[in-house]
From TrEMBL:
Protein origin, superkingdom: Bacteria
Key words of the record: Chromosome partition
Domain ParB-like N-terminal, residue spans: 39-169
Comp. bias (Basic and acidic residues): 423-441
Disordered as annotated region, ranges: 1-22, 44-68, 352-441
Protein name: ParB/RepB/Spo0J family partition protein
Entry's Gene Ontology molecular function annotations: DNA binding
One GO cellular component term: chromosome
Pfam families: HTH_ParB, ParB_N
Biased composition (Low complexity): 391-412
Amino acid sequence: MAVRGNRGLKTNPLAQLSDDEQQEQAIVQAAQIDGTAVRDLPINAVAPDPENPKSRLTPDSGLVASMKGEGQLGPGVVVAIEVWASYGNNPDDIYAARAEAEGADVDGDPADYAKAVAKAKEEIKYVINYGHRRWAAARAAGLETYRAVVSDTLKDNTTKRVHRLIENVQREDLTPLEEAREYKRLLEVDKLSQREVSRRTGIPQPHISKRIGLLNLPEEAQAALDQGIIPVEAAVELSKIAKDPDRIKRVLDAVAAMPASDDSERTARARLAVDQARKEYNGYKAAKDKADKRKKLAAEGIVIIDNLNSYFADKPGDRWDYEIGDEDKITAAREAGTLAAYVVSPDHVTYFLTELPPPPEPEEPEAADDEQHAEPDAAAAEATDAEPDATDSAAPDANGTVVKVERTTTTVPAPRAEPQETAEQREAREKREQEEREREATAKARAAACARIASKAPSREILTARLARRILLVEEDHSFEAQQLAVKWLKAASVVDEATTVYTLFGYDTNVDAKLAARAAYVYDLALSEIRAQDSMYYDAEDAQHIKRLIEEADYEPAEWEQQALLTAAEK
């Protein structure tokens, strides 16, 4: 059954149309002013406007009973079909609707269908502007006439649609999707902007925008909304991810799996629908923002890294050698076309070089003194030629003849001199070496101190304080949300005062005594379990333990669907 309701909209001057007595009085007064009388028209001579939501033609049982006993008290407003057609409307739509309502089948016998349409043309003389529900109830009650004012005061279709929309919204007679279609018709057919619709109806523009967004939902989600399976709040969240039907389906499947046999279960199901819809929207938005960031960087000529391990698998060196964080280096790499990026999130991008820079060229040794490279003088050369080499020797050959063997000396060039270390470089190197020695020494000292502490059994107070602080400082999913919840519960229990905040209790610089730290850690752990259970589509063993704890320690009575979820978790 479709769910209606538009509470929260501000009052509009035309809201008087939502009250039968005030509406009748206003219509009668208008009729008296322009000389138009309230008339009892043959009920078959009146037809509903095809643009009016079909749900308005479903007879209201209370109104039907009232008309059977009292007759029709409040008149409607109709316009002659010729005047209605002059607005640019097609009367054939009305005739076809009447024929089909009478049982004629457009795909059946053409002769029978044509006969039914001809009968409708003969009968219908007026089209309803206001009072569709009363006309439907009057027909259901068996009344032969329909009280109405025949008017042509609505000079254009736009005015007619705006007034009808105001009446229906103020009466809360439209489902969210019907309301959305009314807004869309004003935008597309009457070419009004959302702002203009808001001005003419008094309905806030954000409300109009959200309702129109519901029409982007897939059919399955629209059906779930119409049937009351998901509330309109969840549908609005899902409309934001209408382009990702898989995410929408996950929410619908999770909600459909929950029983809803009573009000408490229906409330729980509605809450789950909203929570899961928001969770899927947040995931969708994060993924979209990340993709947009990657696209933007790629457009700037930056190489996008999909997987760090794969990207650096075949590159020499360690990936940390490629990482750069200095803005000047990032700018230089960007200009050189050697910049790569790994997008963690839109606000967290790590930059790398695509290639390691080549090692610096070694410095050329300084030129030697001329004396070291002077050519030997001629006398020295002659002396060298004249004197036998000290390494010359004589040895007999195979025939016993002594043969002089000369041994030559090969000169090996001296190795190239290494670049000389400047005084500044030497000072920096010595400083690094000294810091490394100091770090190694302090690390050994700390390790020895830790070993001494580890050799002693801690007192219960010290152990509780240390473990509690460790729990409080651990960053987990939903940690801030859980901290807020823990502070709220501790305030309710008067454990902390009203001035206590997340930052004063859980901050890194906070000094709290061991007893309060232990209590805060205990409640924080409880809050994490509760948030996890709230976010779970299906309970697992951990969620089941949390529910069991609530049952045993707080006399919690689980709903029927929770009991089933506990049984399912126990079977896994």
